[in-house]
Design a protein that fits this description.
- There is one protein chain.
- By secondary structure, this protein is mainly alpha-helical.
- The protein has one helix and no strands.
- The longest helix is centred in the middle third of the chain and has 41 residues.
- The protein is rod-shaped.
C-alpha cells in the first residue's frame, strides 16, 4: 500500500510538472500571437 502511494505521489508530481510546462509554453505562444496580431492590425 505504501509503495502504491509513493508511486501515485511521484506520478502526481510529474503531472503537475508537465502541466506547469504546458502553461508556460501556452503563455509564450499567446504572447507571440498577440504581437503578430497587433502587427497585422497596424497594416
Amino acid at each position: 500500500m505504501a509503495a502504491n502511494m509513493n508511486k501515485l505521489a511521484k506520478m502526481m508530481a510529474n503531472l503537475t510538472h508537465i502541466f506547469g510546462w504546458i502553461e508556460k509554453l501556452s503563455r509564450i505562444f499567446q504572447r507571440k500571437w498577440k504581437m503578430r496580431l497587433s502587427l497585422f492590425s497596424d497594416i
